[in-house]
Design brief:
This protein is of the alpha/beta class. It folds into three domains: 17-153, Methylthiotransferase, N-terminal domain (Rossmann fold), CATH 3.40.50.12160; 176-408, tm_1862 like domain (pyruvate-formate lyase- activating enzyme, Alpha-Beta Horseshoe); 414-471, Nucleic acid-binding proteins (OB fold (Dihydrolipoamide Acetyltransferase, E2P)). It contains 14 helices and 21 strands. It has helices at 41-56, 80-99, 110-115, 118-122, 138-146, 194-198, 206-218, 247-255, 275-283, 300-305, 312-325, 344-357, 374-378, 385-409, and strands at residues 31-37, 59-61, 70-75, 104-109, 128-130, 151-153, 176-180, 182-183, 202-203, 223-227, 235-238, 243-246, 262-266, 290-292, 330-337, 361-366, 414-422, 429-433, 439-443, 454-462, 466-471. The strands form six sheets. A six-stranded parallel sheet has the order 2-1-3-4-5-6, sandwiched between helices. A five-stranded mixed β-barrel has the order 17-18-19-21-20. A three-stranded parallel sheet has the order 7-10-13, with helices on both faces. The protein binds S-adenosyl-L-homocysteine, iron/sulfur cluster and FE3-S4 cluster.
């Protein structure tokens, strides 16, 4: 598989770093493209599909947008802030284009899908607008744009999964890889723009998922994360074998590829995560004991307005079941502060839910109204901004305390850690993760291990975000 450098940038939830550049044009390529990605892991995985399509058509990736013939921004619409970040990035690329008029700017992903042709009116100098299901048409659109026309394809599809496209790993550590197992979302959470930008839910051919995971393992990868907006509704009928593949059975098949290949997944919906999935997780050592289970709110009234289709009690029962089946399982959540009509009492219920679930980690946001969503059409965004921010600050403070407590509990414990590379702070330390997805840092001194290997580490101290230990 080819692996040329490309850039990525995350939204506020994830911070990224740059890729290694390709210094010269690789043989057989005619032009260079640059891509920057925002938003969720699925968007990053899509950029790897785009890179593959571009390579096939003679474009090599570059890390440096100043030398690129084509500059792509793979965008996110989840919150207003994510869109603002993209717009300020576009500003810089437009300046670049003024000095190099031949350069083309393409906007891909969710913001392209949300704004469609309007993007071209709002952001002059953007040449290409392509939605998440239309990446196969990129080469044709580029040709069109090269003749000076504006090129747009924002058609959503009911069956596109890019199953046959072998993604080109961008910015990869060569140890952990992401594999899309489905696209779109059929839930209609009132706050969420994803069903509008990504379209209907569809599952990818199980055989192609397994092949991609096997390929990654054969290339030296030791961990795959299966990605979907709602992985528990994965559903595939293998007609040749006359077999129904559910998410639980898919997990098992991936786990069986090799005991040294770790399996993770994201995201689970509390209404859909089954006991079968939990039992499958507990049966296989290499399925990581970690579940991201977005709660959004601890108040049943707010959950109903959000159309999450579960109650506070249901969510608590799911957490209890996880702990029952896997006492050592890490749990994290997404939390939204200040959704429409949220009272102080509702907010207190969110805080008490966090204490109940004892999340190891959370992604926390204040509500940002998105045009076209159920909430934007039906409810008033009536919680004042300063109240939203104050409630969010309380949520963040509590989570910091819970993370600290969770890490304190790990002192003295021994974990199997997959080494992902050097620690951020020092080349003399390894950084890796335990099964529960916690970052573990330990000294290389006296260690014979290499990146991509497993090490047994005893935890000796911690910060709120990191476990620090010694190899045993
Ligand atoms: N499919 C995943 C979530 C995808 S979006 C799931 O259902 O859990 C990631 C997170 O962004 C959501 O869980 C939610 O917490 C947050 N989010 C989505 N829309 C938002 C909005 N309008 N304002 C603030 N946060 C939002
Ligand atoms: Fe959005 Fe809800 Fe679908 Fe998640 S499950 S992507 S929050 S609509
Ligand atoms: Fe953003 Fe689209 Fe993902 S809106 S969070 S990039 S599905």
């Amino acid at each position: 598989m080819l692996d040329f450098g490309v850039n990525k940038v995350h939204d506020e939830a994830r911070q990224g770093e740059a890729y290694a550049p390709s210094e010269t044009m690789p043989f057989g390529f005619k032009k260079k493209f640059y891509i920057e990605s925002y938003g969720c892991q699925m968007n990053f995985a899509d950029s790897e599909v785009v890179a593959s399509i571009m390579n096939e058509h003679g474009y090599a990736a570059t890390k440096n947008y100043e030398e690129a013939d084509l500059v792509f921004l793979n965008t996110c619409s989840i919150r207003e802030k994510a869109e603002q970040t993209v717009r300020s990035r576009l500003h810089i690329f437009r300046q670049q284009k003024r000095s190099r008029p031949g350069m083309l700017i393409g906007v891909l992903g969710c913001m392209a899908e949300r704004l469609k042709e309007k993007f071209l009116e709002e952001e002059k100098l953007v040449d290409i607008v392509v939605g998440p299901d239309a990446y196969r048409s990129l080469p044709g659109l580029i040709e069109e744009a090269e003749t000076g026309q504006k090129a747009v394809n924002v058609l959503l599809s009911r069956d596109e999964t890019y199953a046959d496209i072998s993604p080109i790993r961008l910015d990869s550590n060569g140890v952990t890889g992401f594999v899309s197992i489905m696209r779109g979302c059929n839930n209609m959470c009132a706050f969420c723009v994803v069903p509008f930008t990504r379209g209907r839910e569809r599952s990818r051919d199980a055989g192609s998922i397994l092949q991609e995971c096997r390929d990654l393992f054969n290339q030296g990868y030791k961990e795959v994360t299966l990605l979907g907006q709602n992985v528990d509704s994965y559903y595939w009928v293998d007609e040749q074998k006359d077999e129904l593949v559910t998410f639980a059975s898919l997990l098992e098949k991936v786990a069986l590829i090799h005991p040294d290949l770790r399996v993770r997944f994201s995201t689970s919906h509390p209404k859909d995560i089954t006991d079968e999935v939990l039992h499958t997780m507990s049966r296989y050592e290499n399925i990581c004991k970690y579940i991201h289970l977005p709660v959004q709110s601890g108040s049943s009234r707010i959950l109903q307005l959000m159309n999450r289709t579960y109650t506070r009690e249901w969510y608590m029962a799911r957490v209890n079941r996880i702990r029952e089946v896997m006492p050592d399982c890490g749990i994290s959540a997404d939390v939204i502060a200040g959704f429409c009509t949220e009272t102080e009492e509702d907010h207190q219920e969110t805080l008490s839910m966090m204490e109940f679930a004892k999340y190891d980690m959370s992604y926390m946001f204040f509500y940002s109204e998105r045009p076209g969503t159920l909430a934007a059409r039906r409810y008033q965004d009536d919680v004042p901004e300063e109240t939203k921010k104050r409630r969010l600050a309380e949520i963040v403070k509590l989570q910091n305390q819970l993370s600290q407590e969770s890490n304190q509990k790990d002192l003295g414990k021994e974990f199997k850690v997959l080494i992902e590379g050097d620690s951020k702070k020092s080349k003399e330390e390894w950084m890796g993760r335990n099964s529960q997805n916690k970052v573990v840092v330990f000294s290389k001194f006296g260690s014979t291990h290499k990146k991509g290997e497993y090490a047994m580490v005893k935890i000796t101290s911690c910060t709120g975000a990191t476990l620090i230990g010694k190899q045993i």
